[in-house]
Amino acid sequence: MLHRHTVNTSSIEKYSLRAVPRYTSYPTAPHFHDGVTGKTSARWLSRLDVDAPISLYLHVPYCKQACWYCGCNMKLASRYEPIGQYAKTLRAELRLLAKRLPGRMKVSHIAWGGGTPTSFRPVDLAHTMDLVRELFDVLPGAEIAIESDPRTLAQEAIEAIGALGFTRASFGIQEFDPRVQAAINRVQPPEMVASAVQALREVGVSAINFDLIYGLPHQTVESLVSTVEICADLAPDRFALFGYAHVPWAAKRQRMIPEEALPGLYARMAQADAAAEALKAAGYIRIGMDHFARPEDELAKADRDGTLRRNFQGYTTDTAETLLGVGASSIGRTPSGYVQNITETGAWARAVEAGTLPVARGVALSPDDRIRGQVIEELMCRGRVDLDMVAEAHSAPGWYLGDLPALAPMVEDGIVVLEGARLTLTDIGAPLVRVVAAVFDTYLEGGRARHSMAV
What are phi and psi for residue 139, nearest 5 degrees? Predict the structure, then answer.
């Protein structure tokens, strides 16, 4: 239960303008280093418990059109040849990974992301999923999810997705206002999305996710609320409501977006609040800082029973401690640490063809990383944490005492409540959870990584 407090305007500015990570991992990706290699990854994989389920993430970086807001690793492809070759190399990497494992592993979650995974022709999608099932035991009831672009989703691909056993599909809606869509180079009318959703449901893909973004150029509260209402009529199971992260120094295509058209801090906050209220009015439960789900959805159930987790796909029901990332730039996680593949597709492919795991960098988890990672995930997923309980679980009494002074201004400003070692976000502080989590991030101080603002 969140505590209720009031907070003044200066405090909102003070915290909302801070640049902090999204904490889909700890340590976060900017702090990975090249001291972690393919050999390191192979060693970590060999240590896995063969009886513990794992999850898979398959990254397809190709798109047919660039969305100017996008900060993902993606490549434009006007012909299929490079995509087809990428698919072959992706399967080769799957075989390499399977050879490094201690045995045949069980898989509880599979996620395809991008880019646009449905840029694969159905035959390549089928060959890859067949190989996954050949190499791993995909558990009954496993979630198999795929991101898709309704602008390019053909009926043949929809039928393949259904036949291959996918259980969930995600669409990047972002905003339906035509002026906003033109400014971000993603034009997709509601009718196009509705048609794709209906077609997927007809082939058995019953679980649908929509992504929305606030803070886009020319966006208003009215346009975003209208988008929410149109989307709610399509009855997706989940929404993600993200703040647009304008990082043109990292995502060069964002330079196409006129900065003068971007809403300011208070406009962003108003958009976020109005969209959240519209989603709640439509019957969705808020999950963490930026997800919403129907009460009967598994994500809402995980939130209620305390099993909600956070990984590179955001909030998730995936409780596996190991995530194998496959494809250029993909990030994987084992109990020993994180690894990230080579980003450039040519170099990634050459490493795979040479028979080596195509790891570019990563980080080994220290005892301190594990403690702080648990605290940050508790805050991100549950809005509260008992620091003494975490300390006890890691046999590190009082480890957090040096962090408490940094929380004092947040207590005074009504962002958090600190009762002994129990830290709880207030209702005002909930949207600022990343700022509170950053108190426990020892990598931020003096770091060179640049992040987006907190709200």
Answer: -70, 145
Of 54, 208, 211, 200, whose CA–CA distance to 135 is shortest?
54
d(CA 247, CA 259): 11
Q: What is the Rg, in whole angstroms, of the alpha carbon atoms belonging to the chain?
A: 22
Supply φ then ψ for residue 200, to 5 degrees: -65, -40
Do 383 and 425 contact (CB within 8 A), yes or no? yes
- The predicted-structure confidence for 343-387, as pLDDT tens digits, reads as follows 999 999 999 999 999 999 999 999 999 999 999 999 999 999 999
- Cβ–Cβ under 8 Å, residues 385 and 378: yes
pLDDT, tens only, 244-265: 988 888 888 999 999 999 999 8
**Which run of H or of E encompasses 9?**
helix 9-16
Q: What's the confidence (pLDDT) of residue 73?
A: 75
> What distance in Å separates the CA atoms of residue 6 and residue 90, rounded to the nearest whole number?
52
* 331/325 Cα distance (integer angstroms): 5
In degrees, rounded to 5, the angle at the alpha carbon of residue 310 between the alpha carbons of residues 307 and 315 is 85
Decide: pTM greater than 0.85.
Answer: yes
**What is the topology classification, in CATH, of domain 48-326?**
pyruvate-formate lyase- activating enzyme (3.80.30)
Q: Annotate 136-167 with b (16+ C-beta within 10 A) or e (fewer).
A: bebeeebbbbbbbbbbebeeebbebbbebebb
Quote the CA–CA distance of 376 and 385 in Å, as a whole number: 9
Would you call 24 helix, strand, or coil by DSSP? coil
List the chain domain ranges: 48-326
Length of the chain: 455
What is the C-alpha separation between 115 and 113, in angstroms, rounded? 6
